[in-house]
Design a protein that fits this description.
Largest interface: A-B, 25 and 19 residues
Number of helices of chain B: 9
Structural class of chain B: alpha+beta
Number of domains of chain A: 2
Order of helices and strands of chain B: HEEEEHEEHEHHHHHEHEEE
Shape of chain B: globular
Order of helices and strands of chain A: EHEEHEHEEEHEHEHEEHH
Mean pLDDT of chain B: 89
Helix content of chain A: 25-40%
Strand content of chain A: 25-35%
CATH topology of the largest domain in chain A: D-Maltodextrin-Binding Protein, domain 2
Low-confidence stretches of chain B: none
Low-confidence stretches of chain A: none
Oligomer: heterodimer
CATH class of the largest domain in chain B: Alpha Beta
Helix content of chain B: 25-40%
Largest sheet of chain A: 6 strands, mixed
Shape of chain A: elongated
Structural class of chain A: alpha/beta
Chain lengths: ~200, ~280
């Protein structure tokens, strides 16, 4: 049995569709109280967790495999194998702010849900930044004067535009990723290879 | 320490047959180059102000001994502890049992080292093993244009097979990491010996790996795979590398490869590492 941690939220629907396409018979019934969703015949057992927790479950060997976005992996700062990039969940991690924003003072005040990414971005540019961790509505921060700029995920850019903000720089591209525990990869080699092959078949 | 004594006896019997001499050196070594202080080295200053360190790697000790004494031909085996320091573990020791052959002549020397290690381990522990064959030249080629400072950081990331991190590192430092990503993805997808021809790797690497694999006997308890993504070897090795995992514990139990001593002089060696098993009674 391959235990799979699945990211709730943004990627959830795509992940289930993708697994169904690969031939796994699992349904995400949101009304059900069941914690685990299982395909007994194909030997996979899935459970839903917060996106940021997927790498934690995998690195601690609770889940053999996980599916989450690049952003969750970068923010978790844990080492997990990533054998496959999946063909959905495409977006971008960006630096955004007002159109004519210019660097006038340091530290730059940055609001974000992704403090690790923000810290690394400003460090790589040799800039000093004060990072304010927010849990939502990050776009509000420059408007109300809480921050100079924001670091956030952008899919279409509509939310930014509606709030009078623009992308100032792209930090990295985001995609859904399959992550893998190193121990499970060796001790459950046959089951995991079979699972990976079935997904690879539909990514090509 | 029944298991270790058994392993040591079997290993000694095997290396004796092949004409290896025992390498015996004190655990404390004088530091001659301040570069040696880097990383996990445990060092101290004596009352006269001389810097010394506890041995942290047997291969390095052998190389230093050969260089100091201008020796270019040797077959050594060793058995003993190495000592390292890490912030998370503090000072820790590891038992190492290994062998070194200098100079490296051809692939047959690699076969000799791998066979000695594999066969000694199998006879002692009877576990199922995974032998991964690689070659440091594949990654060396992919990072050859990277600035020296960034190279080390990139190799660390490649070694963890953290592709998301590698992409982010590439973006933030303006480095082209596509080749490295392909090496990592291939290391999951194409691991079977027969798949080597599907990999985009230099001809010399294919030739050497194929020759090595053709010379290794078939073992019932050993799975053999190819993996060219083992980046930690790039700094230490130059050419063929191998790693051995004990599948019952999923632990790395042995590793080795071909390394450069200086100019055109190469050596090859391998080491069995024992942490828990060294203390079994």
């Amino acid at each position: 049995m391959v235990n799979i941690a699945i990211a709730k939220g943004r990627l959830e629907k795509d992940i289930f569709e993708f697994l169904n396409k690969a031939g796994y018979r699992i349904q995400n019934n949101k009304d059900s109280r069941k914690l685990f969703i299982e395909d007994e015949e194909r030997k996979i057992k899935c459970f839903l967790v917060k996106p940021m927790d997927v790498p934690i479950y995998v690195s601690n060997n609770i889940a053999d495999v996980g599916i989450c976005g690049t952003d969750s992996i970068v923010e978790s700062e844990v080492n997990i194998l990533q054998p496959l990039k999946l063909p959905f969940g495409k977006s971008r991690m960006v630096l955004a702010g007002f159109k004519n924003w210019q660097l006038k003072r340091q530290p730059i005040v940055v609001a974000t849900k992704f403090p690790i990414t923000a810290k690394r971005y400003f460090e790589s540019h040799g800039l000093e930044a004060k990072i304010i961790k927010l849990n939502g509505s990050v776009e509000l921060a420059p408007i109300v004067g809480l921050a100079d700029v924001i670091v956030d995920i952008v899919e279409t850019g509509t939310t930014l535009k509606e709030n009078g903000l623009v992308i100032l720089d792209e930090i990295y591209k985001i995609s859904a990723m399959l992550v893998l525990n190193e121990i499970a990869y060796r001790t459950k080699r046959i089951e995991i290879t079979e699972f990976l092959d079935s997904l690879r078949g539909i990514t090509k | 320490m029944i298991n270790v004594a058994k392993l040591l006896n079997i290993f000694q019997k095997n290396v004796d047959k092949l004409g290896y001499d025992f390498f015996l050196q004190p655990d404390i070594e004088k530091i001659e180059d301040l570069e040696e202080l880097k990383g996990d080295v445990v060092f101290f200053v004596d009352k006269s102000g001389n810097l010394s360190k506890l041995r942290n790697d047997y291969t390095k000790s052998v190389i230093n001994h050969l260089k100091r004494n201008n020796i270019s031909r040797a077959k050594f085996w060793y058995s003993g502890f190495v000592y390292r320091y890490s912030v998370s573990n503090g000072l820790f020791s590891q038992y190492q049992l290994g062998l070194e052959k200098i100079p490296f002549g051809n692939v047959k020397d690699g076969v000799e080292i791998i066979r000695t290690i594999l066969e000694s381990y199998i006879e002692t522990f009877s576990s199922k093993l995974l032998l991964e064959i690689g070659d440091s030249r594949v990654i060396e080629e992919a990072v050859k244009d990277f600035p020296e400072q960034k190279r080390k950081e990139v190799l660390k990331i490649v070694d963890t097979k953290n592709t998301a991190e590698l992409e982010v590192f590439g973006e933030l430092n303006d480095l082209e990491v596509e080749k490295l990503l392909q090496i990592i993805y291939s290391s999951f997808e194409k691991r079977k010996i027969g798949e080597i021809n599907q990999l985009n790797i230099p001809y010399e690497v294919k030739r050497d790996v194929e020759e090595l694999l053709s010379l290794l006997p078939e073992y019932t308890n050993v799975e053999i795979e190819i993996d060219f993504s083992i980046a930690r070897t790039v700094e230490e090795y130059h050419g063929l590398t191998f790693t051995i995992y004990d599948l019952s514990t999923s632990k790395l139990v042995a590793a080795g490869g071909k390394y450069r001593l200086y100019d055109d002089l190469y050596g090859i060696g391998g080491t069995i590492f024992l942490e828990d098993k060294a203390w079994l009674i």
